[in-house]
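B., you asked whether I could sanity-check this one before it goes into the benchmark set. Here's the sequence:
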Amino acid sequence: MSPEPYFPVEPWCVREPSVELDRLGHTESIFALANGHLGLRGNLDEGEPYALPGTYLNSFYELRPLPYAEAGYGYPESGQTIVNVTNGKVMRLLVDDEPFDPRYGELCAHERVLDLRSGTLSRSVDWVSPAGQRVRIRTVRLVSFTQRSIAAIRYEVEPIDEPARLILQSELVANEDQPSIGDDPRVAAVLASPLQAEEHHHSVHSALLVHVTRRSGLRIAAGMDHVIESTERIAVTTESHPDWARTTITCEMRPGQVLRVVKFLGYGWSSQRSRPALRDQVHAALAAARFTGWDGLVAAQREYLDRFWDNADVHIDGDPELQQAARFALFHVLQSGARAERRPIAAKGLTGTGYDGHTFWDSEMFALPVLTYTLPAAAGEVLRWRHATVDLARERAQVLGLRGAAFPWRTIRGHECSGYWPASTAAFHVSVGVADATLRYYHATGDEAFMREAGVELLVETARLWRSLGHHDRHGRFHLDGVTGPDEYSALGDDNVYTNLMAARNLAAAASLAPRYPEVMARLGVDDEEAATWRDAAATMYVPFDDDLGVHPQHESFTRYQEFDFAAIDPEDYPLLLHVPYFQLYRTQVVKQADLVLAMHWRGDGFTAEQKARNFAYYEARTVRDSSLSAATQAVVAAEVGHLDLAHDYLAEAALVDLRDVHRNTRDGIHIGAAAGTWLALVAGFGGLRDHDGRLAFAPRLPSRIDRIEFSIRWRGLRLRVTVSPDEATYTLRDGGTDVQLELTHHGEAIVVRVGQPVSRPIPPLPPAGPTPHQPPGRAPLRRA
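And here's what the prediction gave me:
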């Protein structure tokens, strides 16, 4: 990680004081705007130069080939890739026939600001054209949280020294040229021009394009409309063609006069609705946006975010850069799922094409816990999307010779899209993530309608998966053999501890909760005998332990494997997967990302304090953090076992993964899992939040370099505010009447918090820390100074 920040440290914004063209890929992701339904990369308004142009709609994808050198039964036959849809961001400016381009003329000033409270991206430019004409350009862009199909841009240009003829070309562009994707020409051919034109229309100030994907058959309509303000005469023309439309605004302005244009963008897509229906939907969305107006959209955006930050902000005293990074991370988690509405949260959200736009297990195990405690309705919508794919998960289980639902390793629509089965098909822990997120959401919200309509079925079908995947040995112990856990440098292990403990919770919860919903049990064909087999499997689940070392192997026999030769690895050879054969990784003790340590976070009730300390030290020496998901989990458990300053270091690595481009791949999109992990590291790490079996518990402690943190969580319709200082924690209930109370524990002490009656408790002395952890050579996190 770079020791110096690229962006100035400010509490509520991310500011780029000048444009650096060689960092465009990075900043396009940083400055991306989205609402969970629609996402715009932070491309420059004029469209060029760019690293990766991007406009995305959640779950809008094209099918592509999945080529195999040697195919096998059950291999997925096609993949799904997110599509760069019709781009409406482009607004090209010509000043006396000279196109504005930061590569030409003199760029006197250029600043962009992502405002985390207003949800806008602002840009200020002072430019002198090659012919010597100077203009000032100011733009503001937003993707609306309150009108989910709408984005809007306000564009202002002003001559500075002399009168100027201004021409502004506002465009819709489909099938933009994209950088090369991979080396397979069959894939490149499919994705080169994925949209086939169906309709195009225009009027004086507006235009609309309708396209359909060539293979997946998804239809999209994109439209634009404009409001133009000028004190001088203007000429406006609009034209449309199958793949592009353009509104041209021409005028002559004197110094001090401003041409101001507001551009409204509307999007709609469907796999079923007709062209007229989508066309009318987009026209209606644009009409509503125009009625609201620019000022109304901005005000509604700020009101939405004021409510969100009141519920979700984590205030940090003592580390200003971490404060900025934590808010930036939480903002992007919000953007990934706020208005997803029965769609998934992808690993990169709607900020780039990394991982083909797929969702993975980190949606349920990183993003959804954050949303469950800050914006629970959004978490419920993502889980309802998972439920909508349960039939596909059942089909996948049947192909694999199993019962229940086997949710895919990576997907957009719900089909398995990974062709590498040791790290995908065998990674059944995706399904325990779905079950665990279901339980957490139910415990935090008490949403009975969700349980009846979706939750119970998710728990039942995942329990059925474990019961059919596992078996009892001759001693009566239940095993899950040949599975891959979260650590992708191990594969096909027996009794992965994380998977087994999480599956045991899943089985026990299904057995205890399903009988409360007899109508659902009847519909799913669950009887008392089947529920009893789940209960028995949970109670007898085998968890391996190495008595000689006093630690848990992350799967059976892992601690017997040969030690990995870290001394032979050059620092430039990370990530190892690009330089070391998987054969060598799979048979040695090297860990890509937290696995056993992740189990100690989410199933901490399955370990003693001594086991946690010894396990943490053992796996620290073998974990290389080649995944951006790892640092946050290591921070959570480091804090619990007493290594608070190390936890601070790991927290910073997770929080700054994109702002400092730690993995040098932020150009592909924001790491949403790491962003969510930042909140988890703060709230579950230094706040000590745990929710085992629906019981709210805190064990807060701060590192030496943080003076105070303050955060809120939502629980059963209430808002609990937690303030942590080095010596004391205060719990304040913010909603409900004077008779409302909330039971929780503080460092094991049961307390009751009532509205208007904050409860403060001292933080007990830190017990002796366990073994001092050491990381592999060159893999220690950067120390926070």
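One thing to flag: DSSP finds 18 helices and 31 strands in the chain. Otherwise nothing jumped out at me.
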